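Service request form, structural biology core

Requester: graduate student, group of Dr. S.
Request type: structure prediction, single chain
Budget code: on file
Notes: please return the result as structure tokens.

Sequence provided:
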Amino acid sequence: MQQQILHLLCTAGTCRLHFSGREHQLTAGCCMIAMASHVGRLDPSPDCQLLQLLLPSELQASCMPGSSYGVCGWLHLFMHPIFQLQGDALAVVEHDFKDVAFRSHHTPAAYREEAVLQGMRALYLDVMNAHAALFEHEEASLRSADIMSRFIRMLEAGTYRKHRDVAYYAAELCVSPKHLHKVSTQVSGHTPSHWIRQFTMMEIRHLMMHGKLTAKEVAAKLNFDNASHFSRYVGR
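Core staff response, request fulfilled:
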């Protein structure tokens, strides 16, 4: 199934939702960017004004800044998907959301996708600029950024459902497990195993909370060897 990236911006009122096994409340000025499959049902207040955008995950890469900073910025967005905007930053990002929506409804079909992607590129630049003021982003070498970007894209595509061994990803990226560990730690501050587990656990929590599946069914869906292996993975 095609992964979608959900973009939310609350401009008034509040909106409750479940994400990564926890309940969150968006208030005015809150922005959220996360995989749609990991976000539970939205419960907006009567006075809530919520701007929403969906983007296929494979198109997200083309919207990111073409520098190593863009990869680091995306990783920080993943680690801190909900953040508060105010002042000029809020006004700029709100304008970007509305601009993308306008382009998607009023651009001729032949040019619509490119027009929307251009709007999303501006949105990501402005979001990362605002995000960097709240969370420290670090620069990385272009080679390291490329490796880390491809690693995360594999996880985004759902590869973790079948492969949770760092050696598999290292082989696919044509590097050694040791080198992938070094790159991941330097670029993101976390090991490859951490990222694999993050994606896996987010899906497990979502499936068990919203998918109405038993632990045994979730274990089968994510290709665990058996129920005891699944229990050890979740409990560690």
